[in-house]
Specification:
By secondary structure, this protein is α/β, with parallel strands linked by helices. Helix content is about 45%, strand content about 20%. The longest helix is centred in the last third of the chain and has 20 residues.
C-alpha cells in the first residue's frame, strides 16, 4: 500500500475505537469487498485510468448505495473521478475532504479540470490539509482558508510490531552494518534519479524499497553509473520493512516536487528514531523533518548537497543518533495516530451536529 492507503487505514481503525464505523470505497482491477475487522473496503471494478486517475462505472451505483446510509462522506483529493461522483449522485450529506496534494504534473489537463476542482472544493463543508507548510504554499488552499483545518498525518507505533530476530539477521547480513534506506513508490517526483547521481564516487550503501513506473529507468541509471553499492529490493512485507527501518543509519527521502505533500515513509523513519534527509519543497516533508533538529534538509534537485548531507551522517554516528532521537520526540509530540484520529473524529462530530441542528 502507498501512503494514502496507509493513512485511510489508520483513520478507519482509530475511529472505530471511538465508535465511528467506516466503509471505504475505491476502485481496483480486482473488484471485491474486504473486511478488515474494524472497517470494510469496497473495491469497484476499474474501467480506465486517465492521467493516473482511476474511473469506474460500477462505482457510481456503489457510492450511492453506501453514501445513502452514511452520516458523513470523507473524500481524499486529488481524485477527479470522486468529484464527478460527488455531483452525479446529488447526495446531501456533510462532507470533508483531505487535501493531499496540488495537481503538479498534468498542467494541460488541469486547465480542463480546474472548473470541476474549484466547484468541488467550494461545495464541501471542510477541507483538511496535512501540514501548515502546504497551506502556506498552495495557491488553491489559500482560496478556501476559511474552511481549511490542519490535521497532520499520524501513525500508530503499535501497528509496527518488533521485527523477528531472523529478519534482523537476514537484513544485517544482506545490507551490512551501515546503510541508508529509501521506502516508497518509485515515481517521477520521488527524486531517486537525484539520489543515484549523488552516489557517484561514494561508498554509501543504499537500500531502495518499493516498486513503480520508473523502476527500470532507475535500475538502468544505477548500472550506467556503476553503483554497485545500491540495491533495489522491490516491495517487501511489513516484517522486512520494520527490520530495515530498525537497522538503517538514516532514512533518505529526496522527493523534489510538490507532488510529495507529506511523506509517510519519512514519518516512519521519525517513528523509528532515525535521522532524516529530505529536500525543501514547501510541503509537509519539512514539517516532519526540521533542518538541524531531526535531520538535514537540502535544496531540491541538488545532488551535491544531498551527497554532503549523507556524508555527514555516514561519518558521524553520534550526529545521526542525536538527530534520530529528536525525530522520535517530534513524532510523539505531533504525529501519533491517536492525535490525528481524535482531530478527525472531532471534525466528523462537528459537521454531523451542524446538520442535525
Amino acid at each position: 500500500m502507498g501512503g494514502v492507503e496507509e493513512l485511510i487505514g489508520q483513520i478507519c481503525s482509530g475511529a472505530a475505537k471511538r465508535g465511528v464505523t467506516s466503509e471505504v470505497l475505491t476502485v481496483s482491477r480486482n473488484p471485491t469487498t474486504v473486511d478488515f475487522g474494524d472497517h470494510v473496503h469496497h473495491r469497484a471494478k476499474l474501467d480506465v485510468e486517465i492521467a493516473s486517475s482511476a474511473f469506474s462505472i460500477a462505482a457510481f451505483k456503489r457510492f450511492a448505495e453506501l453514501a445513502r446510509d452514511a452520516d458523513l462522506i470523507h473524500y481524499h483529493f486529488p481524485w477527479p473521478f470522486a468529484d464527478v461522483v460527488h455531483f452525479a449522485t446529488h447526495l446531501r450529506k456533510p462532507t470533508v475532504v483531505t487535501y493531499h496534494s496540488d495537481i503538479v504534473r498534468q498542467k494541460v489537463l488541469l486547465q480542463l479540470y480546474r472548473p470541476l476542482r474549484d466547484r468541488f472544493l467550494a461545495s464541501v463543508d471542510k477541507i483538511v490539509a496535512t501540514s501548515p507548510n502546504y497551506v502556506a504554499t498552495s495557491t488553491v488552499l489559500k482560496r478556501y482558508r476559511d474552511k481549511v483545518e490542519i490535521i497532520p498525518i499520524g501513525l500508530d507505533p503499535a501497528s509496527y510490531p518488533a521485527p523477528s530476530s531472523a529478519r534482523l539477521r537476514y537484513w544485517k547480513d544482506r545490507a551490512g552494518e551501515k546503510f541508508f534506506l529509501f521506502v516508497g513508490n518509485l515515481r517521477y517526483y520521488k527524486g531517486l534519479h537525484i539520489l543515484l547521481d549523488s552516489l557517484r564516487g561514494t561508498d554509501f550503501r543504499v537500500i531502495i524499497v518499493g516498486a513503480g513506473p520508473i523502476e527500470s529507468e532507475l535500475r538502468d541509471q544505477a548500472t550506467r553509473l556503476r553503483l554497485s553499492q545500491v540495491e533495489f529490493v522491490g516491495p517487501v512485507d511489513d516484517d522486512d520493512k520494520i527490520a530495515l527501518l530498525t537497522l538503517c543509519r538514516a532514512l533518505v527521502f529526496p522527493s523534489h516536487l510538490r507532488s510529495e505533500a507529506f511523506g509517510i515513509s519519512l514519518l516512519e523513519g521519525a517513528m523509528f528514531g532515525k535521522a532524516l534527509i529530505s529536500a525543501e519543497i514547501g510541503t509537509g516533508t519539512s514539517y516532519v523533518n526540521v533542518d538541524s533538529e531531526t535531520g538535514i534538509v537540502v535544496p531540491p534537485s541538488d545532488a551535491a548537497s544531498l551527497r554532503n548531507a549523507m556524508d555527514s551522517l555516514w561519518a558521524d554516528e553520534a550526529l545521526a543518533t542525536r538527530l534520530g532521537a529528536n525525530a522520535r520526540k517530534r513524532f510523539e509530540a505531533h504525529f501519533t495516530a491517536e492525535r490525528m484520529v481524535e482531530s478527525y473524529v472531532a471534525v466528523y462530530d462537528s459537521l454531523v451536529r451542524q446538520t442535525e441542528s
